[in-house]
Amino acid sequence: MLYAQVHLTLPAWVHDAVDTTRTYEGDDAKVALAIDLSRRNVDARSGGPFGAAVFGPDDRVIAVGVNRVLPHTCSVAHAEMMAYMLAQQRTQRARLNESPDGSAIGPITLATSAQPCCQCYGATVWAGVDRLLIGARSEDVEALTEFDEGPLPADWVGELENRGIEVVRDVQRDAACDVLRHYSASGGARY
Fold first, then answer.
1. Which of 9, 41, 116, 164 makes a 20 to 30 Å CA pair with 67?
2. What's the pLDDT tens digit per position in 5-62?
3. What is the mean pLDDT of residues 131-136?
4. pLDDT value, residue 91
5. Over 90: is that where the pLDDT of 132 sits?
6. Closest to 33 in 3D by CA, of 60, 69, 67
7. How far apart are CA 121 and CA 117, in angstroms?
8. How far apart (Å, rounded) are the C-alpha atoms in residues 143 and 141?
9. How far is CA 138 from the centre of its chain?
10. φ and ψ at 184, to 5 degrees?
11. Sheet hosting strand 166-168, strand order edge to edge
């Protein structure tokens, strides 16, 4: 029999960890939430060391994601992908920054604990975000863990900016790298 559906979930602890009524003003606060989610995911052993959050123009959380690849046996269950899918389901918009009549909604921001891999980079192009905030760089991920982040265009930042997506790197980079170190020190598997 062929499977006819996919069921992906965040760990139960997320409900207590995220306050959707709070405003997260500024880039540091947004990325700090993504990093906190990544650390909690490692500590709870509920997935890999990556967290992400989608924010609306009011600086409130629309959706969050953590890495769930191994728990769900699903290679697309990266933190950014989970956050995008859940935000799209919550808003009922495939492009988060576009209303059904085509008018702009935004800015929509994705904050992530680490630079998106090639898969999540591709999803970022189409998800409908206006800003991308990044903690650790891909070279940090590859140096501190055993993850392969995959190939990106040589000017990946320029490619996103050409599509109207502002990219801000190295936000809370040291804190994000600390989670990657913590994950490796705790014997983390490849998620």
1. 164
2. 999 999 999 999 999 999 999 999 999 999 999 999 999 999 999 999 999 999 999 9
3. 98
4. 97
5. yes
6. 60
7. 6
8. 6
9. 13
10. -65, -40
11. 61-66, 51-55, 109-114, 131-136, 166-168
Tokens representing 92 are 């009922």
Question: Which stretch of DSSP H or E encloses residue 66?
Answer: strand 61-66
- Spatial CB neighbours of 86, under 8 Å, sequence gap ≥ 6: 10, 54, 63, 64, 65
- Tracing tokens 């265009």 back to the chain, one arrives at 153
In the numeric block, which tokens belong to residue 128?
């409908």
Residue tagged 């936000």 (tokens) = 171
pLDDT reading at 190 higher than 80: no
Q: Do 33 and 83 touch, CB atoms closer than 8 A?
A: no
Give the C-alpha distances (Å, rounded to integers) separating 151 from 7, 40, 52, 83, 122: 28, 28, 21, 22, 11
**pLDDT tens, residue by residue, 71-111:** 999 999 999 999 999 999 999 999 999 999 989 998 999 99
Contact 165, 107 (CB under 8 A): no
Question: What b/e string do you get for 64-81 counting C-beta neighbours within 10 Å, with b at 16 or more?
Answer: bbbbbbebbeeeebbbbb
Instruction: State the DSSP H helix or E strand holding residue 126, giving kind and residue range, or none if neither.
Output: helix 118-127
